Amino acid sequence: MRARTAVALALLLALAACADGDERPELQPDGPSPTSEPAQPPTDGPQTPEPTPEPTPEPTVAPLDWRDTGVEAGTRYVRGTDWEAVVDAGGSRVELSAGDRSVTVAAGRDRRISEVLMSEDWAVVVRQDRAETAPSLVVAVDLATGERRDVTTPPAASGGSWALSGGDLHYPTYGDDGAYCLATAALADSNGEDGWCAPSRSGFSGLTASEHGVGLMTFDDARPVACRTVNLLQAGVPQPVEGPSDCLAWDVAATADGAVWSEVPRPRRQEEAVVHADADGTVVDLGPGTTGTVTPCGGSVFFVRDPQSADEPARLMRWTPDHTLEVAYESSSTGNAFLGEPTCGGGVLTVASFGDEGDEHVWARVMP
After folding, report:
1. Of 107, 99, 100, 98, which Cα lies nearest the Cα of 130?
2. Tens-place pLDDT, residues 99-148
């Protein structure tokens, strides 16, 4: 079960790798990938000492007011402040609804719904080419009016990582000579532009976005091993976060005074991470986490922690703006249990739980 995150991310991230010349990224065994064993920093010359993390704080059990979504745990579902989105089992259509209002977006021939994102005011549906050779088609829905509009500039790459905060959509596109670039579209005026582009033979993934900023992981194809770096976007350019160990980081999300990130200490166990936070310049060890689950929502940052023993549940951890580590949710099952990747829709968090004692799919509003 735990391999779910590692396999999905390995495929996603390899697709994000950038090729030389006019070729577009392809999934190739010898291409750049952040999943290989990280490169080691040189041992000669002066070394900058790594900051020593503060001990892991004892988490407070503070569950949110969870409510049942009304759909099965395996269903792709996003809940917002008023609207909800349900994707059918085949990924051929998504139904957006709020009370007696509804909007249906069909994937179309030879396409599937690959992403559904939601903020307070917008929903974004990404229709990906099943062959992954044509650009993705993007539909934005104004949740105040139900009006649909296409996001066409710049054109979206097929696949990759996406993030939505407020009315700003961040997604991958192609630049000059096939460069893999980060686009930002202001949905209110349909104004989109491409910005920073990954250097040749490198890529980015793991996009997160909130009112505090945009985070992403970049990686190269250094031989024989690759190096991963987590960044926050500043003036449109990724800037490495201070604090993570060289080449080991994976997830990242911006906070009001720093960032939360994960590191993978054992390259062959890519789903197992240790999560850290920068709290006013002090690095705090937040304990074990699962890669691919760091999610900003409502001013806090959440991440999944798999059971650490046979008698422990799977937990959804929360790092609050006042630097408190909390247990926001616990599975009813212990040992053989896990949580899906959380989703945030405008300050509303949704999570699915799977285990021997039964599955659960719940949502809760997150207060800052």
Report:
1. 107
2. 999 999 999 999 999 999 999 999 999 999 999 999 999 999 999 999 99
For residue 114, the Cα-to-chain-centroid distance in whole angstroms is 14
**302/281 Cα distance (integer angstroms):** 20
* Residue 344 amino acid letter: C
What SS3 state is found at 249? strand
Mean pLDDT, all residues of the chain: 87
Taking a C-beta distance cutoff of 8 angstroms, is the pair 32, 18 a contact?
Answer: yes
Beta carbons of 304 and 325 less than 8 angstroms apart: no
Helix (H, G, I), strand (E, B) or coil at 287: strand
User: What residues contact 257, with CB distance under 8 A and at least 6 apart?
Assistant: 278, 279, 280
**134 near 126, Cβ under 8 Å?**
no
Amino acid at 195: G
Domains assigned to the chain? 3-39+51-365 (2.130.10.120)
3-class secondary-structure state, position 55: coil
Instruction: Count CB-CB contacts under 10 A for residue 270.
Output: 20
Yes or no: say if 25 and 15 are a contact pair by the CB < 8 Å rule: yes
Q: How confident is the model at residue 51 (pLDDT cuts 50, 70, 90)?
A: low
Q: Which residues contact 263 (CB under 8 A, 6 or more apart)?
A: 244, 245, 248, 249, 250, 273, 274, 275, 276
Helices (H), 16-166: none
By C-alpha distance, which of 187, 203, 110, 199 is closest to 149?
A: 187
Dist CA 212 CA 287 (whole Å):
23
Determine the pLDDT at residue 190.
77
